[in-house]
Amino acid sequence: MQALYVNPTDCYNIHWPIVRGQLNVHPGPGGSLTAVLADLETIWSHVIQKHLEVQLKDLKYYRCILLVPDIYNRQHIKEVVNMLLLNMGFSAIIVHQESVCATFGSGLSSACVVDVGDQKTSLCCVEDGVSHRNSRLCLAYGGSDVTRTFFWLLQRAGFPYRDCQLSSRLDCQLLQHLKETFCHLDQDISGLQDKEFQTRFPESPSLLYQVRLGDEKLQASMGLFYPTTFGIVGQKMTSLQYRSQGDSEDPHDEHYLLATQSKQDQSSKSAADRKAISRPGGALDGEMSSQGGIGELSDLPRGCGMGGSGAGMQGEMELGPAQSECLMGAGEVDEPLSAHLSRKSAIMSQFESKALGLDKAILHSIDCCASDETKRKMYSSILVVGGGLMFHGAQEFLLHRIINKMPPSFRRLVDNVEVITRPKDLDPRLISWKGGAVLACLDTTQEMWIHQREWQRFGVRMLRERAAFVW
């Protein structure tokens, strides 16, 4: 935070290591992965020494919990773990997902976790400590977009502070404060109201302004439900989990499993065909054995590899088009793998161009769950965390929109739709961190620790062995 209040006239170049929930790798100065990791290491080292009063040389006596996004970049996580264990010198680490830790911190066993941050909004359904891969979504908007929209509305309303610019860090801090103070989602509050605010800048006197506001306070907050208001163009609005591109240090990754599973299926089918032909009346037996083979393959879990055509069709009917990475693993045997992946990627790209509102994204995420019983659990426990939806009346407003838009069939099945914005009266911005602290104390997580020597010897393979989610 101190860097945000540096005098704009001073000769500093401010870097943002994380943007939209991911490492800020870009082609400009300081945008390489090495530079971003160095910035993160500098920030974390400073915080550990100043606020936790722990010397860096003593980190070998400490362990750490790394919370990662639900939709994650494997290469980035690998490099961050490498930096924490080898560069900073922590003795061990646990890597877990933010949504699962949010349920731990709130004391819930199952929930649809909605994390509304400053620059991104992520959704994921968690059941008994397991994140449903199909339900993960990341939306490219958050609280900062509400701030930007509020500024545009203020200008239309005759904002008295004429020199306000979004390019100024201090002005952005002022606008964020005004948004948090004035904006709401309570439709009972209406009419014109006179508001006052004060500006404080280095080497300048404090000034008091007055502004008259009407529906601008509600319209800016409503942008989370109508994201076209933000006017975001030129980037993906919705992100899904893609397959890993492979890692030379992890030869037995999902690509290896996919290839071996396909070969096993083909060899099993060939053996069954030869056995059927060798019998009397081989044509009829061959048909029956082929049908039996498809039945056996359809019993395999979705996403475990190339299955039969029946398994692929069943997966698409249950999950819908482009719901998740698992769709890319099921397909017809006769279709080449490269063509199948290209087709699925095209479908996913088309879906990612859509701008889903927060309520529609929640319904979409819940609808991606496999069973009606799981969906019922999610509707009865929608957990909102993060600091992007801390408006007055947000809980009732979101609940009203969910009930009105949920499928009619589930209105009869779900006894009580509940939106939780402040579990146990805790700050929603700290729920995931509290869950990480709870995770470190559990006896069942002792086998999840990745120690420094193990990482030095086995590298990223330890994440596949020890991570509590599918790597």
Automatic annotation (TrEMBL):
Species of provenance: Solea senegalensis (Senegalese sole)
Similarity comment: family membership: Belongs to the actin family.
InterPro entries membership: Actin
SMART domains given in the database record: ACTIN
Extent of Low complexity compositional bias: 261-270
Protein's name in the database: Actin-related protein 8
Lineage, highest ranks first: Eukaryota, Metazoa, Chordata, Craniata, Vertebrata
Residue span of region Disordered: 261-301
